[in-house]
Amino acid sequence: MTLPTTILDDLAAGMDDLETLYREFHQMPELSMEEHRTAEKISEHLRGLGLEPFLCGGTGVVAELRNGEGPVVAYRADTDGLPIEEDTGLPYASTATGVLPDGTETKVMHGCGHDTHISTGLELARLLTEHRDAWSGTVVFLFQPGEETSAGAVAMVEDDLWDRVSVPEVAYGQHVWPGVAGTVNVSVGTAMAMADSLEVTVHGRQAHGSQPEASIDPIVLGAHMVTRLQTVVSREISGSDMAVVTVGTFHAGTKENIIPDRAVFKINIRTFEPAVRDKVLEAVKRILEGEALASGAPAPTVREMYRFPRCFNDEAEARSLIGALRAELGEDAVRETPPVTGSEDFGVFPDSLGIPGVYWFFGGYSAETVENGIPGGNHSPFFGPDDVRTSLTTSVRAGLTAILSRVGV
Ligand SMILES: [Zn+2]
Ligand SMILES: [Zn+2]
């Protein structure tokens, strides 16, 4: 199957407008679960197409495009920005600000490229609305907030999403990454890692720095915990399995001659397999408790901050999509790739229904930039696709190929 030329011609003709739309979203990033203006702009655009969008899960936007008998397909685009000050030097760089949950003000940018996802989703809605003769069925558009905090997909499902729309038989989604614009990467099976984030509060006993015998030093104890956590991956997990254990923060104390009463650090864990995840989490818990015991300290308090589910591509669906994408974009433009250690909450949608899902990546940079070294990957202040036209043309074609492989006539 390849896309009808009438649709491709329309896509090419609308590319100036799409790039303008992309730049508008680029300049108005909002923090996770605070995407109010973004949701309004998305809704306005969808209403302009004659659809009836509604809010779901706070700042999520859902619109159902019904076009006669046929399969129901869900297409998801995430919408949130990140608390990063953009440093791309682009003429349309973001100067937006936002307020984090702890009350601090921050600069905000679309540092993960979700502005490309919004633009792609809206263009898919436009082309499918204007070319109803090319397909038959229903497409449910899910503009999901709060991907970066893993809050948004769950919020939408818990807001009775599936009682409010036609239930899909498959879910699709895609993400921009710093590869060559025009290319697409698809994994068969696991596509992205599960992630667990934990906050550990180490409880010690406060004392004067000159009297360590009166203390239980939470810094020494915490340091042992952090050091020993390095052995989870190196000594307990098979070389054929993937696991990452990173301690990304460590805070304790106020002055060099005061032994504080606590230390707080945060752990981030990535795994591909549920059994490996269980093993890592058990080992982490055992080490934290064992080290506390060794220091004569009470057990630490461990708070689960958030968790990302596995992003799993149904194998048959992924293979069939790879075939369709190669037919549409060219053999060389589509690669089958191993899973990545990043995480996503896209899987919540297919998992909550027990339906297959497929999630893939599309490139954002010119071949020349990729060759010379990209200025920064996703979540960097320098992240800014520099071949937006090719990138969006490809993401829209890939999205259409996936959707029409189900509902095309
Ligand atoms: Zn992202
Ligand atoms: Zn991200």
Write a brief caption for the model:
With 409 residues, the protein is α+β, with helices and mostly antiparallel strands. The protein has helices at residues 5-13, 15-26, 36-48, 114-130, 152-158, 161-164, 218-236, 274-294, 315-329, 348-353, 367-372, 388-407; strands spanning 54-56, 60-67, 72-78, 97-99, 105-107, 137-144, 170-180, 184-186, 189-192, 194-203, 207-208, 243-252, 258-259, 262-271, 301-308, 311-313, 334-336, 357-365.
Write the layout of secondary structure elements.
Blueprint: H1 5-13, H2 15-26, H3 36-48, E1 54-56, E2 60-67, E3 72-78, E4 97-99, E5 105-107, H4 114-130, E6 137-144, H5 152-158, H6 161-164, E7 170-180, E8 184-186, E9 189-192, E10 194-203, E11 207-208, H7 218-236, E12 243-252, E13 258-259, E14 262-271, H8 274-294, E15 301-308, E16 311-313, H9 315-329, E17 334-336, H10 348-353, E18 357-365, H11 367-372, H12 388-407
Parallel strand pairs: 3-6, 3-7, 7-18, 8-17
Antiparallel strand pairs: 1-2, 2-6, 4-5, 8-18, 9-16, 10-14, 10-15, 11-13, 12-14
Helix pairs in contact: 2-4, 4-12, 7-8, 9-12
The structure holds zinc ion (2 copies).
Structural commentary:
The protein is elongated, with a radius of gyration of 23 Å. With 409 residues, the chain is of the alpha+beta class. An 8-stranded mixed β-sheet has the order 1-2-6-3-7-18-8-17, with helices on both faces. It is 36% helix and 26% strand. It has helices at residues 5-13, 15-26, 36-48, 114-130, 152-158, 161-164, 218-236, 274-294, 315-329, 348-353, 367-372, 388-407; strands spanning 54-56, 60-67, 72-78, 97-99, 105-107, 137-144, 170-180, 184-186, 189-192, 194-203, 207-208, 243-252, 258-259, 262-271, 301-308, 311-313, 334-336, 357-365. The model has no long low-confidence stretch (mean pLDDT 97). One zinc ion (ZN) binds next to loops.
